[in-house]
Description:
Layout: E1 4-10, H1 17-33, E2 38-40, H2 53-59, H3 66-78, E3 81-83, E4 87-89, E5 99-105, E6 111-116, E7 122-124, E8 131-133, E9 146-149, E10 152-156, H4 165-173, E11 178-180, H5 187-205, E12 208-211, E13 229-231, E14 237-240, E15 246-252, H6 254-263, H7 266-269
Parallel strand pairs: 1-2, 2-3, 10-11, 11-12
Antiparallel strand pairs: 1-15, 3-5, 4-5, 5-6, 7-8, 9-10, 12-13, 13-14
Helix pairs in contact: 1-3
Amino acid sequence: MSGVRVAAVQMVSGEDVARNLERARVLIATAASGGARLVVLPEAFACYGSADVSALAGAERDPAGPLRSFLAATAREHGILLVGGTIPVAGEAPAERPRAACFLYAEDGSELARYDKIHLFDVDLPDVQRRYRESDSYAPGERLVCAPTACGMLGLGVCYDLRFPEMFRALGQRGMDVLALPSAFTRLTGEAHWHVLLRSRAIENQVYVIAPDQGGRHSATRETWGGSAIIDPWGRVLASAASGEAVIAAEVDAAVLRDARERLPVRAHQRFYVPG
């Protein structure tokens, strides 16, 4: 996987699904034209706001759903690995809440992996929105996901997962080399914690972190931080964005991974097993 170029796409998605998809299409094309072989979209890239999650989720139960079809076709068009941020996917049981699903697509458009967001953002903050309750709309996932790719073993996480380091330690035990973390961090928490947490997860797990964020004002009460970043296993920020739409890119290099792990053989010294 030496010298594989990867990209993170930062967006300011709203409730208009068609517009969001068009912006994603343009930004993915920009990343691919710059040589990226792996492109990662932010959380809720296709719809961010008060749209009916259940209506969108019902169509996405089928792999031929419009959002999944968009991701598959776009990956195939550009011949890239594509991490599709998150989209709502209906549960199997009729009364079950949807899952916030993160799909990984291969260069031929086939689905390689699916991760359902485990940690749901149910918090109260001193910002304009004040109350966040993801569990009102979504059910939590239950399974960790790590998949082999041209960039190495790719672990998947989403946004609030970032605050639970044991999750990434468990992914490391499965051989994770690169973490893709689609996010929509609030402005308040992002300004205080975003880069600190991203660098911590990269350093302690000795992995590359690719973290695309939503980055701007979505409504009168919703604002996200931005600051999308790509970080290497030594904790160096290789690329970062400010706010607004952006595409950032960097190289994932097996030699850098190997060097970090040889300097500090953390995985060999680990005395505690984290069940996953």
